[in-house]
Amino acid sequence: MSESLTQVAQKAGMKLPYDPDTLKQKYMAERDRRIRADGNSQYREITGEFAHFVDDPYVEPGFTRAPLQDEVDVIVIGGGFGGLLAGARLREAGVKKIRMIDRAGDFGGTWYWNRYPGAACDIESYIYLPLLEELNYVPKEKYSQAPEILAHSQAIGRKFDLYDDALFQTEVTGMNWDAKEAKWTVTTNRGDAMKARFVAMSNGPLNKPKLPGMTGIEKFNGHTFHTSRWDYNYTGGNSLGGLTGLADKRVAIIGTGATAVQCVPHLGKWSKHLYVFQRTPSSVDVRNNRPTDAQWANSLEKGWQKNRMDNFNVLVSGGSAEVDLVGDGWTDIFRKLTTIIARQEPVEKSKASSAEMAMLSELADQQKMEEVRARAAAIVKDPKVAEALKPYYRQFCKRPCFHDEYLPTYNLPNVTLVDTLGKGVDRITEKGIMFAGREYEVDCIIFATGFEVNTDYTSRSGYDIVGRDQNTLSKKWANGLSTYHGFYSNGFPNCFFMGMTQTGITANIPHMLNEQAKHISYVIKHAMGHNIRAVEPTVEAEAAWVAEIRKMASVGERFYAECTPGYYNNEGKPKDNGNGFLNGQYGGGPVTFFKILEDWRNEGELRGLEVS
Predict the structure, then answer these.
(1) Domains and CATH numbers, the chain
(2) CA gyration radius, the chain
(3) Residue 189 pLDDT level (bands cut at 50, 70, 90)
């Protein structure tokens, strides 16, 4: 019979002010009451009568241009950080004809669309903003705000001449492989039919907004919009605040995830009254943003950003480093977790079983989350509201948040938290929102309900890919992703995937995308320099990588199964998550994965790839 958490804590000499097993039971109870039979079906796709929710509010309407039927070396789909990094690394590799395609009106990706008030990065900007050394730029603050990040994205586009052949306000509608020419034909909603030797897809996981599947959205007589399409014509102000248009408005926001944590303080400050509808509270820890120290910035030596990124990556992957160069909320979490475990001398860690080490880690996690809950209790004056804002789940069941103004907002007299006890609101009426028999009358409803991340790859992309012998990617990946190193799939030559496709994921996503961009540019440069017409993984290499992914998938299976429902664990159904947000990532972690890629490139043999 295995030991309980309480027994392991006693064995380790921990003197805790709570019972670990009772707390775990609380976690499980909170999870269970949030699990819904409809899972991801609780959300609706933004199409048909709801299509206006994804209209671009940042461009002039009526844009037209002549269709293109030309040819380039590489088409990069997506103008966010992933696409920009691919374009930059391809330029560095000597590729001339690069065409960037994005549905947005400019580069930026997530940071083009997300201009809601308070929008900022929650990973330190000195490691989050890519290519800082290449652009000789140091961000203004430890956590850059949205306008600066968008401007940096545009600066990357200019630096690497990516605007030259770029197609904005353009959506890809299909990709077809021509085996005779060994080229892809890419079609778009603008009537384009362009050819390219290679295609790199960086569609991004956070590009397609979703709405809750509740009834009545179309009946509401007031104003509505999604946070990723913020309507400043209605609210006034900009992403830095000043929402003067809400002074006489009763506003409701549905959702309390990372986006809401950043915009709720501005809504609370400017609205006549704000109702925040919560299903599950976020974990909100200290942020402590501050201006960049000029003396420190001037002291930086060559290679500083890579060193800092690698240091962060090691620490948040559970490794050790002599110094924490970043010192932000993320590394603080891991430092505290490892410190708590290290203190447990009565348990000889060298002799401890994997089960005991897992339980020590869980006990450390509990102590860290007790700090987060204590912070809510200390800041929020109303004990009932404070309790509702306490997250009862493990630290990484949901994306951790860091903010210094979110919790104090609930002390304002014009702000009301409507805790839906994990169920979500009942329905929307002509006048407002119904929950538990009460109608909350409002003038405006803002949906902070996130993005479509747990649907299949081609649904999120908005198009299917027709490869060799007319086989489609949607059919091949119907029962799960199948790639070699996450980049390519047999039957789809010269086609590269970026993002979260069987790769080594790290909290600092741009770091992951940069490693992917370096790898893809290496393969393309090699192919172009050696007169290789087509490159794709062998059946054997792909099968071996998929087997490796599946073998290591069990590492996090129990963790996510015990988590509160959310997009990290497919709304509480992790085993059903064939193509979801965190499904199928490399279980050995990003440090090991990046080393695998580096060693593969150093071999110089394109091992596992079939070339013609």
Answers:
(1) 71-206+454-606 (3.50.50.60), 209-282+398-447 (3.50.50.60)
(2) 24
(3) very high
